[in-house]
């Protein structure tokens, strides 16, 4: 039996008071226009210019930075300047590099673990005073770091930790921003139904955190770990105070290149580029996994 389609209503028989149907507008393409590409290109060039300037001066000699008619093509002295930085006995380049890698890696891993654990508690567990405690944690970000330098130095001096890596690792094991970041992410990405299902299956609170919270938190944890590593790598103020020249981190060691009466900026900027190479390699190897993890979390959310 064939279905009979309803006859179209003649134009004269239509109700004039009925709202007229709007024609669907053509959907525009999702590709951005030239303004977006031009803006992104300008931002990219502005971001890359400091690296190019460092390479330009770092590949020249001591007179390059003062030469008004300098060439904008990098010279051929970068390897010699880099060798001068590495071979400088006052810098202790290789021990400083190892110290930066160890301290930044431990700080990043600790901040990710404790921030994810605390964020899970604030986001999905109900306990008395939880919202007010979260407000207190966030409020600590308004306290300048410089206010705690003197008591921290006195504390680690009494403990005998001055000049050791533990003095820069222990104060940075947790992060108020990391707790807030993971709290907001887990609150939005993990449905309460998954937690109830895990509890019905007999999982404990910590087992629920490991099986439900940790997989859901991977995109945010990867981003938090990456930026925490970069922040710890570039930290100069506190390591410069508490560490000595025999056991420095890389930024503190490179600052010794400017301690002489005559500063050769070609060698200084060559050292700056050397300290940037590990971060660039980290972004190259971890950037793809970071973006894929964020996209995976967005699709699942």
Protein model, in words:
It is found in: Cell membrane. Belongs to the binding-protein-dependent transport system permease family. InterPro entries: MetI-like, MetI-like_sf. It is a multi-pass membrane protein. The protein has twelve helices and no strands. It has 301 residues and is mainly α. It has a domain of 156 residues: MetI-like fold (Orthogonal Bundle), CATH 1.10.3720.10. The mean pLDDT is 83.
CATH class of one domain: Mainly Alpha
Based on the structure given, which CATH architecture of one domain is correct? Orthogonal Bundle
Major sheet: none
Q: Looking at CATH, which topology of one domain would you report?
A: MetI-like fold
Shape: globular
What's the N-to-C terminus distance? 46 Å
The amount of helix comes to: 55-70%
Pattern of helices and strands: HHHHHHHHHHHH
Q: What is the fourth-level CATH superfamily of one domain? A: MetI-like
Binned strand content? under 5%
Q: Give me the number of helical elements.
A: 12
State the total count of DSSP E strands.
0
GO biological process, one term: transmembrane transport
Membrane topology: Multi-pass membrane protein
InterPro entries: MetI-like (IPR000515), MetI-like_sf (IPR035906)
Subcellular location: Cell membrane
Task: Briefly characterize the structure.
With 301 residues, the chain is mainly α. 64% of the residues lie in helices and 0% in strands.
